[in-house]
Amino acid sequence: MSELKKEIHRRRTFAIISHPDAGKTTLTEKLLLFGGAIHVAGAVKSNKIKKTATSDWMEIEKQRGISVATSVMGFEYDGYKVNILDTPGHQDFAEDTYRTLTAVDSVIIVVDSAKGVETQTRKLMEVCRMRKTPVMVFINKMDRDGKDPFDLLDELEEELNINVLPLSWPIDSGQSFKGVYNIYQRKLDLYTPSKQTVTNSVEFKNVASPELEKHIGDRLASKLREDLELVEGVYPTLDVEEYLKGEIAPAFFGSALNNFGVKELLDCFVKIAPYPRSVTAVERTVQPEDNNFTGFVFKIHANMDPNHRSSIAFVKICSGKFERNAYYKHIRLDRQMRFSSPTAFMAQKKETVDEAYAGDIVGLPDTGNFKIGDTLTSGENLHFKGLPSFSPEMFKYIENDDPMKTKQLQKGLDQLMGEGVAQLFTNQFNGRKIIGTVGQLQFEVIQYRLLHEYGAQCRWEPISLYKACWIESDNREQLEDFKKRKFQYMAKDKDDRDVFLADSGYVLNMAQQDYGDIKFHFTSEF
Ligand code: G4P
User: Fold this and answer.
1) Alpha carbon of 22 to ligand 1 centroid (Å)
2) Which of 13, 119, 162, 483 has the most neighbouring CB atoms within 10 Å?
């Protein structure tokens, strides 16, 4: 195997997703402990943004600033290079999370055993399903009284619309939690509450052995045997191919806070999770092992300090090797560029790197050259397919409040939209600009940044909309007829595509009924 191939095949780039408070930060921290990337628990700054802070978004941005350092956490483990991509916890930044999911090769979902599947998890799983991303589940907080494990797995299957497969099985829960039987490694992992230590495991190939009683007592031993028999009857054995196709999600039980079940998750993860997958560009499918470098920008982190206007563009390397100071082509600008200080993220340190491989993320200091979705290559004219936009949930007209600063407003809006802060639609009927977001916070962010970074003043005016749908049809006549009839509600997105602004669910339903040949999409990538 070539050196390049070896490097790529040992990479595991993934994101941990969860509903806020399920334990994402805690699990991340424990994984870093195993990777030797940090040495004490509590070292990872929480990227969690408490709901109560919504009124003070500057505070939130400060917290997000912290998250630059923890945006990507790389570490070495057992011969593997693991890259964890962090995702913002606050739901108003869900769009950021969606985009991050385009840069990962797999996902670990954390679920709180008492709460089960929650809204945010459901939405994020939809994105994973759309992209066929392989998923593993960590059922957390087993040290608390939770739901029955069979019920939980049923709930996961139903709510997340994916088959799950338990690879460990809990022995009781809450106060009397004894540990798990590790089905994957055929051993008994006994639980001792502690924030730092590693699980005490006993090899246990055969649970029929009377030794089991010695460890967990008569009642729990026979319950475990019964449960495992049922598990064996109900769930198939692990087929890694199915997992890699995103059809089945292996599940582990544990307690991140007590560092229980985490190493087992990690051990299985590095073994079966995919190395960088092929990526589809408009022109061709790009294989990670291709010798030539290609990559795309999936996230831009602006510096909130107006004195240092540079931002960081995060590039996911799709193929080959990235080298510092080499010339690469910025496709949209049709320009050769070289980067003298690309950064990689090892643990919590951001450091300049000389090279990075497919699967890795590099951070490129930027002063406005990059937009989300931009492609960089060694020279080939290639366009990675645009990152998906999702129909926003909130809409407002944006108006210029200072006629002397029209240009500044235009420029600011262009850049902020390029960073993916929100989506801009232009109404074809009256030419007014509409900003769509997933949360109220973005409106505040935009207004503040336009003023402080571009000297432009904007004001918001209400518009009552339900959804923005991208429309397409092979039936040109019907499409034209629809656009004519709904001309007041037709808009263009940033790429000049047709978007229908439905002002209610009812209107949308009627439109779908009346125009059977038109497809109404809630994401821009279809
Ligand atoms: P998030 O990033 O998904 O939002 O969750 P985070 O890890 O911050 O965890 C949310 C809360 O749940 C934290 O408590 C954390 O200590 C707790 N937690 C995480 N894993 C477990 C577990 O296995 N068992 C139990 N019992 N609790 C767990 P907090 O009080 O909100 O924060 P903190 O003050 O403890 O940091």
Assistant:
1) 7
2) 13
